[in-house]
Design brief:
245 residues, mainly alpha
């Protein structure tokens, strides 16, 4: 089992190492669902308070870029630690949710002030896409075959490379990707589609890890993995809506 989400690829390595003698409680689908809801709730609460703080700072004449940058970098570091050491995910997953929520809160307020109403639309759209992809996966209208996984994984790799190159261009005052117009909208639509399809791989990976009898802490780890994709999808939808303005 492979997944476009690097966190879920850990499941494959762990599945063959579990002692099925019953000495350790196994992860369950209901437990993973509960943890997923908890992490999303933590992210939303942290994001809300971050937005309120950011609004006050912006109205006073300063944008809290350090807060956004610091929290995003912190979230990235915590994510790496979690991926390489899933056993501590009951601690690091909530921490990641807080840091990601703070960073996204600042970004969301900046976008909200520029495009009023965009945040609520992005949040509702993200929720709708997640539920739609869950239904498509549960009804097997979309089946994550090996080829499907390879295509999505390759697409994500290409997107990451494109973003890295664009970031390097920006360091020299340029930009590889357009910020508005039909091309920008087209690129955003493609990336949003890839992010949405990645959810199918996440859902399937979670089910496979539960069926494999992985340890209880994988409930938090799987929930963390799903949250990573949901946050990515939210950012891409936010960018798509901004490009349409």
């Amino acid at each position: 089992m492979q997944s476009s989400n690097p966190a879920l690829s850990v499941v494959t390595r762990q599945a063959g190492q579990i002692n099925f003698g019953g000495e350790e409680a196994a992860a369950t689908l209901s437990g993973t669902t509960t943890k997923s809801i908890l992490l999303v709730a933590i992210t939303l609460v942290a994001g809300y308070f971050s937005m309120q703080y950011s609004a006050a700072q912006i109205y006073s004449g300063s944008v809290p870029t350090m807060l956004m940058g610091g929290s995003i970098i912190g979230a990235f570091i915590v994510a790496l630690v979690t991926i390489f050491n899933p056993k501590i995910s009951p601690i690091t997953a909530p921490l990641y949710a807080v840091l990601e929520g703070v960073g996204l809160g600042v970004l969301s307020m900046v976008m909200e002030l520029k495009y009023p109403g965009i945040v609520s639309t992005a949040v509702l759209s993200t929720f709708a896409v997640v539920m739609a992809m869950l239904i498509l996966w549960k009804t097997r209208l979309i089946v994550p075959t090996a080829r499907f996984r390879a295509v999505i994984t390759g697409a994500i790799g290409g997107i990451c490379l494109l973003y890295i190159v664009n970031m390097l261009f920006s360091l020299f005052g340029g930009s590889l990707l357009p910020s508005s117009g039909p091309v920008a909208i087209g690129i955003s639509l493609i990336v949003c589609t890839v992010a949405a399809l990645s959810l199918v791989l996440d859902f399937d990976g979670i089910e496979q890890s539960v069926n494999a009898g992985l340890p209880k802490y994988f409930e938090y780890f799987n929930a963390f993995s799903l949250l990573v994709t949901i946050c990515w999808l939210y950012v891409e939808i936010l960018k798509l809506l901004a490009n349409r303005e």
